[in-house]
Amino acid sequence: MKLILPLDLVADIEPHLPPDTEIVTVDVEGNLDGDATDAEVYFSWFLARSPILHKIIAAAPALRWHHAPNAGVNHILTPTYLERDIILTNGAGVHGIPIAEFAIAYILAHAKHLPELYALQAERHWKRGFAIQELTDATLLIIGAGGIGQEIAARAKPFGLRIIGSRRHPQELPNFDKVVGGDEWRALLPGVNYVVIATPLTPETKEFIDESVLRLLPKHAYLINIARGGVIDELALIKALTEGWIAGEALDTVNSEPLPSESPLWSLPNIFITPHISSDSPKIKQRSIVLFIDNLKRYQAGQPLRNVVDKEAGY
Description:
This protein is of the alpha/beta class. The chain contains ten helices and twelve strands. Helix content is 29%, strand content 16%. Strand 4, helix 3 and strand 5 form a beta-alpha-beta unit. The longest helix is centred in the last third of the chain and has 18 residues. It is elongated and about 70 Å long. The two termini are 27 Å apart. It comes from Nostoc punctiforme (strain ATCC 29133 / PCC 73102). Keywords: NAD, Oxidoreductase. GO terms for molecular function: NAD binding; phosphoglycerate dehydrogenase activity. This is D-isomer specific 2-hydroxyacid dehydrogenase, NAD-binding.
């Protein structure tokens, strides 16, 4: 069996492979170091842009299974990619812990006014009188109660938050006080304090956080996006933040990355922007490799693979 592996991971993966395995390596620009025409398996890595993916799958006509380390695969499911009958698996579950920790950090930063306090320290200015909040009894709505949403709930619950989740198929979940389905979350917006968006970007979720949603939120609500930039209508968000419809927003992802220097988002006082790093952790690489090796064993044994993406649903 022949595999296409990212050049940066070969040394870590090769010791776990069967002795009859052949390897073709690929660099960050999609350049292959050998013949991939009979390769069955491709393990891509982060920052693999669509043109690079297209280049690789074109060079591998026998490709049957592609494993991507990302949880979100909207950038992979292009018309060109979907023309091929390739099993796609993703990195769901690998990133949940660091993203959940960032979500809690965003919530605490807002509740305890940490950005303002950091600024005062830099100015050597002693000031009190902030409207600092407790998290106890506040309501957190997690739109997208999948793996990442559940990790967020597990870390939020000890703070005493009331946690509501939303998912396509609602069910009772640990650490959630309530889980709703469909668009039921919209009716809950007037009563929330914090909203975390943890959904994949699909045709159904593209800009689904629009003006109508933002106007339903109370003025004290704080919005957090650790999903994809495309789930929010940025023009509506800028209007909401400028006119004070909501208290603020934490954005780890935006429509155009890197965020252009001329974007008005940079200058809004009630926004916390991080450069799409909430999933960063030194443990991600090892977790990704462990998942891939486990799936490779399943693939060779003809067993069901973990994290198979429903291409029609988009996740």
